């Protein structure tokens, strides 16, 4: 495909919050201006993250429509900027996740050219960004998510992967190991890395017992990674008994249904038995107390789901009595993404993915909202 055909992309556009109910409309959009370190990707696969649904509704804050979501992207490179030529070539199969940019220590005024105020000294714009200097780009104060946010430095709106093409920063573009099928690699780029990163950070491995709350896209990855990393014991939590067989097949040793009779007794029997709990549920209520009960002294509860309302009610006394850590975690860094792919190949990790035609994106979104995915839906551009 020649460069001049890449001035207009087509994709699923949300024009209002109603788009989240399955009313996205297919149409053209103009990508941001191509820069020297960019690559253009012809999207073959884009998996569906619950965040896509939440962003379209605007539940986490005002959104700018029309919005094209999708940040679990796999495709083939069709255009390479001069500063990306040392790493990428046309035809390469690559992946792209939920982060499309960071300051990467580029100096002011590269950042904030659209803003009037000069940055304060040491806030990351001056070339001294600690996250970007230490391989934790996802915690850069200038993080640009893959879609829905206007970039500070050029004012353009980032667009996602429910589309024919995606314009990508090469720093956040990843070559894919040939062993990984595209439909498996795609959901790893957000759902996978968001669970891999905190498991590694908090020491998941032999000798450790791990709890996974919420068996959706993220949760099923958490079980697969905990197993691949060699955890001694994995306890899965879901609201109902319906996912028990799947949980055990994924690698759980035990399964508890939080809304079923007997849950309180089951917690008592397992008190102080877990080292790490990853909470992937999209909301957390009173049952948070039961998770803290299950943690060993010094154990860590990691929040991954963006709890509705943005508040978490943590029981304080048990926290003090057991020196419990309550942590948050955001996606993962480029280095962690590369490590995750290595582990996936080494251990033969196989996510449970249901493929859908890109043309059926509205139905897929409705299924995600209804909790019907088992366990990640992946949109496929059949003619890409
Ligand atoms: N931190 C990050 O960087 C990051 C990255 C990606 C996504 N996220 C967030 O992580 C969350 C999960 O995403 P996902 O793609 O895995 O979603 P998903 O596939 O829809 O799974 C979410 C799971 O949460 C549980 N759940 C849903 N509603 C619940 C409720 N009211 N109370 C308790 N549990 C509930 C369900 O599990 P059961 O049926 O088993 O109970 C459901 O399967 C979302 O909030 C998403 O925005 C965060
Ligand atoms: Zn996501
Ligand atoms: Zn930075």
Automatic annotation (TrEMBL):
Residues 22-379 form the Enoyl reductase (ER) domain. Keywords: Metal-binding, Oxidoreductase, Zinc. Gene3D superfamilies: Medium-chain alcohol dehydrogenases, catalytic domain, NAD(P)-binding Rossmann-like Domain. One of its GO terms (molecular function) is oxidoreductase activity, acting on the CH-OH group of donors, NAD or NADP as acceptor. Its cofactor is Zn(2+). The keyword Lipid metabolism does not apply. SUPFAM superfamilies: GroES-like, NAD(P)-binding Rossmann-fold domains. CDD domains: CAD1. Belongs to the zinc-containing alcohol dehydrogenase family. This is Enoyl reductase (ER) domain-containing protein. It comes from Microdochium trichocladiopsis.
């Amino acid at each position: 495909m020649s460069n001049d055909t890449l001035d207009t992309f087509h994709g699923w556009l949300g024009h209002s919050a109603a788009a989240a109910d399955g009313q996205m409309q297919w149409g053209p959009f103009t990508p941001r201006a191509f820069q020297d370190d960019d690559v253009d990707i012809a999207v073959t696969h884009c998996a569906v993250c619950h965040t896509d649904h939440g962003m379209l509704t605007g539940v986490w804050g005002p959104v700018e429509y029309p919005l094209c979501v999708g940040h679990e992207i796999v495709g083939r490179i069709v255009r390479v900027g001069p500063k990306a030529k040392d790493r990428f070539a046309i035809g390469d199969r690559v992946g792209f996740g939920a982060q499309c940019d960071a300051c990467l220590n580029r100096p002011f005024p590269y950042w904030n050219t659209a803003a009037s105020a000069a940055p304060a000294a040491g806030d990351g714009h001056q070339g001294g960004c600690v996250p970007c200097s230490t391989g934790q780009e996802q915690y850069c104060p200038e993080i640009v998510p893959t879609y829905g946010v206007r970039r500070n430095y050029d004012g353009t709106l980032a667009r996602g992967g429910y589309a024919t093409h995606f314009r990508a920063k090469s720093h956040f573009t990843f070559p894919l190991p040939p062993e990984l099928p595209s439909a498996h690699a795609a959901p790893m780029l957000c759902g996978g890395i968001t669970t891999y990163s905190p498991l590694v950070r908090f020491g998941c491995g032999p000798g450790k017992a791990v709890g996974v709350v919420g068996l959706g896209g993220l949760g099923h990855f958490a079980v697969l990674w905990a197993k691949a990393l060699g955890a001694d014991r994995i306890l899965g939590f879901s609201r109902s008994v319906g996912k028990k067989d799947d949980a055990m097949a994924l690698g759980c040793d035990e399964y508890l249904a939080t809304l079923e009779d007997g849950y309180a007794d089951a917690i008592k029997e397992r008190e102080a038995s877990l080292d790490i709990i990853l909470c992937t549920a999209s909301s957390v209520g009173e049952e948070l107390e039961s998770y803290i009960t299950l943690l060993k002294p010094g154990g860590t509860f990691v929040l991954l789901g963006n709890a509705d309302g943005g508040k978490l009610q943590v029981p304080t006394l048990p926290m003090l009595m057991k020196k419990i850590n309550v942590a948050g975690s955001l996606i993962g860094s480029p280095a962690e993404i590369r490590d995750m792919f290595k582990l996936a190949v080494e251990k033969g990790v196989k996510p449970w993915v249901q493929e859908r035609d890109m043309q059926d994106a509205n139905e897929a979104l409705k299924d995600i909202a209804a909790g019907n995915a088992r366990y990640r839906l992946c949109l496929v551009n059949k003619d890409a």
